[in-house]
Design a protein that fits this description.
Order of helices and strands: HHHEEHEHEEHHHE
Mean pLDDT: 74
Distance between the termini: 145 Å
Largest sheet: 4 strands, mixed
């Protein structure tokens, strides 16, 4: 108290202030000190704890995701910790052999589930004049089978190898087709053989006329345009 009275007395004497003014300044100073102390205390660093992770119930998550997908079409989110779903398998592929009266006979690669019509389209389409009455174009193809267009073939061979053939020549739909005679076949009948077009059929007829007929199937090798591969395809389908 004495120290305060002396300080007040010195201020009044030094600055000539009234006692009320000194008291007001003293009050303002105390308030300023209090505000400074409060500000210092409020901005002091504090320890912050990380929030604890809450595991979601897989059953409730699956049920909620299923309900959301059914109501609004939302895609369900994967459950935490669950193994990733395997990627979709690529579409399969089949290999078929298209032979006969098509523009590009040979092996064709098609997607699994393709039909006979797809194989014919991949082979360039059926040639003009080919009889495809007995050809089921809507049938689903199997891997490794042969599609025969306008070629003679016995029903037993069709059942064993899964091939499909159109009507050819004068062969009946129910009886076995006999090999085509090279010595008596017409040009139209020769064109039903695999890989034989109008030009090659005429070469066969010209060779037959010059040599007086075919005495064996091996004489086909002497015809212009018939190589080893084509001869191997024609040999089981023809006779002298």
């Amino acid at each position: 108290m004495r120290l305060r009275d002396r300080a007040l007395l010195w201020v009044r004497l030094r600055w000539g202030l009234a006692p009320r003014t000194v008291a007001a300044l003293t009050l303002v100073l105390l308030v300023a000190v209090g505000l400074a102390a409060f500000h210092f205390w409020s901005v002091r660093p504090q320890e912050v704890r990380a929030p604890e992770a809450v595991a979601e119930d897989p059953l409730r998550a699956g049920a909620g995701a299923g309900a959301g997908a059914g109501a609004g079409g939302a895609v369900p989110r994967p459950v935490a910790g669950a193994p990733p779903s395997p990627p979709p398998e690529p579409a399969g592929e089949i290999v078929v052999d298209v032979a006969g009266k098509v523009h590009r006979p040979g092996v064709q690669r098609l997607p699994a589930g393709s039909r006979v019509a797809d194989a014919l389209r991949a082979a360039g389409g059926v040639r003009a004049g080919a009889d495809v009455t007995g050809l089921n174009r809507a049938r689903v193809l199997m891997d490794g089978e042969q599609v025969r267009v306008g070629l003679p073939q016995a029903p037993a061979d069709q059942a064993a190898s899964g091939t499909t053939g159109g009507a050819a020549g004068a062969s009946g739909p129910s009886g076995p087709a006999a090999p085509l005679s090279l010595s008596t076949a017409t040009k139209e009948q020769l064109e039903t053989l695999p890989g034989v077009g109008p030009v090659l059929a005429q070469h066969i007829i010209d060779h037959r006329t010059e040599s007086g007929g075919f005495r064996s199937v091996d004489e086909l090798r002497q015809v212009s345009g018939i190589g080893d591969r084509r001869f191997a395809d024609l040999r089981p389908l023809v006779q002298p």
